[in-house]
């Protein structure tokens, strides 16, 4: 099952079965969260991507409108990473020819990159989307072995030209976006080869500072584990790879993948998280899904976390992919509820926050993967200023489970559980001997946007949030 089909099962299918608010949901179920001692990964930033078509449409906006959109994402919610889509098959549509205009027009000439950088974004990630068909067998399959070096050179040439000719500094690059869904792809045995060749081609062009991440598979599943293991088993390829990467849809980061980088210097880039289909402002179901996946991923060693699209022209059939949709003539924009959840998270966990491992008495590792999703997901980190941040997401809703008129209990097997309220107690092991800490609490829910809801006192490392309601995001940060 691909990521989009899976997430449709998880989120969108449920919107067809609207039910009245639950009158019998369990109230204040007690959950105990233990934040285990020991620093893990350092959070290195949120981000959002832009497609080629989105960049082209962005070009039609007035400069003030461009600034407004980029400020909302790059500055206000601190999404510092920009993931730029790039189609190598268009760039090198014929062997021996390279046409950079397909990238320059939507991202450079449109001022998308310059305006993003001017408004606070500071890292550019390249997302190669397709291997040229001439490099593989007719009808699709694995890239020809003799073409692997040529593909590596193609990517390195592009990154070099973008820097030398247009001043666009790519900080990191993928190898191939969601490779198993492409007509031409890599076998397990070819993955170490392409990474080694790409590192060599980049270095030969003086691009030693460009990081390589991969394999950017659509799901953090057994296939991802297998491919990452294949790379890790080749010491030279593993050394050349700066970070592993997967996507966060129906199957987000898991222990199986996190364990592969435990004790290593590898980063973990979640280069795409998203939701598909229709959305209107105030949709807390999509927002809670996004927040829960972020917290899940922070519990599984992710260092960089990127939402699919930051802002784009409205599309009634697929607005859920965006944080912000806009329209023209006249210009206006709508901010979706997940934007406010991310605003709240960005004010809880600073760049450089060091996460700990959180485990739950209810659902152990709280892992977001195939099947029913965790009801409560919690993550905690120590910020660079010494403060502690805690975030709690309740992903329960009556649209996931209810009784039909004929008495049949309908349940979304890939969604969440019926609406339930919780009392969540968080114990931070490292603070067991610390003095009392005052923690400011904030909440987001349907059209409730990052509101202050009072203080909680942490005593001997323990704090209780007494009423975490359906689709709530509640965050705490010590003063």
Folded structure, characterized:
The chain has 479 residues and is of the alpha/beta class. 28% of the residues lie in helices and 29% in strands. The chain contains 13 helices and 24 strands. It has helices at 3-12, 52-58, 63-76, 88-91, 101-109, 112-118, 148-166, 190-204, 222-232, 235-240, 255-261, 284-298, 337-346; strands spanning 29-35, 46-50, 79-86, 123-128, 141-142, 172-173, 184-185, 211-217, 243-248, 267-273, 304-313, 322-327, 332-335, 354-355, 358-360, 376-382, 388-394, 401-403, 409-411, 422-428, 437-445, 448-458, 462-468, 473-478. The strands form 5 sheets. The chain has an 8-stranded parallel β-barrel with strand order 2-3-4-6-8-9-10-11, surrounded by 7 helices. Strand 16 and strand 17 (388-394) form a beta hairpin. Helix 2 (52-58) packs across helix 5, helix 7 (148-166) runs parallel beside helix 8 and helix 12 runs parallel beside helix 13. The chain is globular, with a radius of gyration of 22 Å. The relative contact order is 0.15. Residues 8-26 have low confidence and may be disordered.
Topology:
Blueprint: H1 3-12, E1 29-35, E2 46-50, H2 52-58, H3 63-76, E3 79-86, H4 88-91, H5 101-109, H6 112-118, E4 123-128, E5 141-142, H7 148-166, E6 172-173, E7 184-185, H8 190-204, E8 211-217, H9 222-232, H10 235-240, E9 243-248, H11 255-261, E10 267-273, H12 284-298, E11 304-313, E12 322-327, E13 332-335, H13 337-346, E14 354-355, E15 358-360, E16 376-382, E17 388-394, E18 401-403, E19 409-411, E20 422-428, E21 437-445, E22 448-458, E23 462-468, E24 473-478
Parallel strand pairs: 1-20, 2-3, 2-11, 3-4, 4-6, 5-7, 6-8, 8-9, 9-10, 10-11, 11-12
Antiparallel strand pairs: 1-15, 12-13, 14-16, 16-17, 17-24, 18-19, 20-23, 21-22, 21-24
Helix pairs in contact: 2-5, 3-6, 7-8, 12-13
